[in-house]
Amino acid sequence: MTLLENLNTQDRFAASIGAQLTEIREGYAKAELTVTERHLNGANVCQGGVMYTLADLAFAGVANCHGTLTLGISNTITFLHSAQLGDHLTAECTELLDHRKLPYCDIKVTNQNGELLAAVTGLAYRMRRDFPFDTLM
How many other CB atoms are found less than 10 A from the CB of residue 64? Predict the structure, then answer.
């Protein structure tokens, strides 16, 4: 099984909201989702947790691409613009530091027009446990 298939099936929460990894390369991952009625909050805009989950899924792709189980330990998100019903969201994660224990990543969430909606930083912890997969994609 590829890492992309593993995370798309085993991250049951992300899958339940329609988030899917669409690309993984060493040090880079992309996740996508289209905003539907179920993603809207009381202000009738996309719930911030949806954008956070999308960013976290891309983060998981990058953090685990080295074959060691790696879990997020600290993330900071800044919401810059709201996402609207029908928007197609993309979270792109780039590894800034491939540290043996504490990798650090930058994640950007954009809409279909390339507008930056949220900026996220992620710090993870590499466990002493293999996370096997056949290939990344």
Answer: 23
